[in-house]
Write a structure and sequence with these properties.
With 288 residues, the protein is an alpha/beta fold. It has 13 helices and eight strands. The protein has an eight-stranded parallel beta sheet with strand order 1-2-3-4-5-6-7-8. The radius of gyration is 18 Å and the shape is globular.
Length: 288
């Protein structure tokens, strides 16, 4: 893959368990992935700008993500935080925005919240405390819940990002129905598709060719609203977490992010489209 421009990685995490304690309510225990590690990752893939997403093991203690933004500099780093909307005020959210926070994340799939009514209420609560700001709402949910919430997404007066291919699974027996429903969701001008974590979509298959028949159509449907993120440092498989005690550190997966970028390029119409997905759309959305 040959490119002549820097890219933007719109989905990474930092883990600083030695400095900031992990939340007791979590599904896994990560090892450290600090700012120096992140800088090395960005150098490997040729990324100038980055969006740091608050990971679930740090709960609503957003200091790790905010620390990374401060260390990297707000000219090249933004972050998406996680809050409890029941205990966070609008003033608190505005203060976060002043620190370089560009959005709030509803990490509902990881939290086990996938009942449609419950998920909808969580998103309404987040939107309520975000009123008066231009923050983005980032959502991680299974694809069928995203489809059911399409009217809610469309009604919100802010950009909505659907994480990890909107929860799509190529192994699903309802894949054709899911694709049709997802096309409807992505028809809304405020809904963005984040094409991160392709390995999640293909159930960690050795290659991402299972997406060859679907990704180009998604890219076309949401043209101008597709962004890419590596999902570095690649946390483990959720199916294996139930077998692992929290006292044991979960190893990061060995994912070739440069190969992942080649997949994105293969699914893009041309080099301009690839640049749009991996840089210009994200830069406009996040204010770089």
């Amino acid at each position: 893959m040959t490119t002549h421009f820097s890219i933007t990685d719109a989905h990474v995490h930092v883990f600083l368990p030695e400095k900031y304690p992990l939340t007791q309510v979590r599904s896994y225990t990560p090892g450290p992935a600090n700012v120096a590690d992140l800088e090395a990752h960005l150098e490997r893939i040729g990324a100038k700008n980055v969006v740091i997403v608050q990971p679930s093991p740090h709960g609503i203690d957003n200091r790790p993500s905010l620390t990374a933004v401060q260390d990297l500099g707000r000219d090249r780093a933004k972050c998406v935080c996680v809050i409890d909307p029941k205990t966070t005020t609008k003033e608190d959210v505005k203060a976060l925005a002043d620190l370089g926070v560009c959005g709030l994340r509803a990490n509902l799939k990881t939290a086990g919240i996938d009942a449609i009514d419950n998920a909808a209420q969580q998103l309404r609560d987040l939107d309520r405390v975000m009123m008066g700001t231009d923050l983005i709402l980032q959502v991680f949910l299974p694809v069928h819940v995203n489809i059911a919430l399409a009217p809610l997404f469309k009604s919100l007066g802010r950009p909505v990002i659907l994480d990890h291919f909107a929860g799509l699974k190529t192994s699903s027996p309802t894949l054709d129905t899911d694709m049709a429903g997802l096309a409807d969701v992505l028809s809304a001008s405020n809904v963005f598709l984040k094409v991160s974590g392709a390995c999640r979509v293909t159930d960690y298959a050795a290659t991402a060719v299972a997406l060859d028949d679907f990704a180009p159509d998604l890219f076309a449907t949401a043209r101008g609203r597709v962004i890419w993120g590596s999902d570095w440092p690649h946390t483990g498989k959720s199916a294996e977490r139930a077998k692992r005690p929290l006292s044991e550190v979960e190893p990061f997966l060995k994912i070739d992010d440069q190969k992942g970028l080649k997949d994105i390029q293969r699914w893009s119409e041309n080099n301009n489209h690839f640049q749009e997905i991996t840089k210009s759309t994200a830069d406009d959305l996040f204010g770089f």
